[in-house]
Design a protein that fits this description.
alpha+beta; Double Stranded RNA Binding Domain; five-stranded mixed sheet; about 40% helix
Amino acid sequence: MKKNKRLCLLVMPFLLFMTACGFHPIYGVNKYTPVGAETKFENIYIASIDDREGQFLRNELIDRFYRSGRPTDPQYTLSFSELSESIKELGITVDADATRGQLKISTHFTLTDNQTGEILLERSLRSIATYNILASEFTNRVSEESARENVLRDLGRQTEQQLALYFKRH
């Protein structure tokens, strides 16, 4: 019982100090921001991205940003550079066969103000996923495609996070 009291006495001041440290949520309206970041997302036009992977990433962002339909007169434009993909074989066996694959996709995005043409935010993004390499070619293709989709979803999440942080600060 004494151990629980000591632990409680140590943890309580920490919890009290955490409430006064200035942390506040990114999403939603609170006393620090009258407009949430998610409402700013609805004013962003997402430019087309080349290739099938770019279309997947763009659709992922559309699903994340446009909760009440696409913008008719967007205030911002979000554009991406070409997606750069690399695949490495890892986990080499004695027979020189790979047992793991590593997929890395990187890109660069730019947020531009449509009224002034000013670049508001530029960020480089990168995501990595690994997958098993098995004896079946079909299984390998399915595993690689699943890893690719996971990487693209992560790039969408990173983009949303970077934009939310930007809009929270400005």
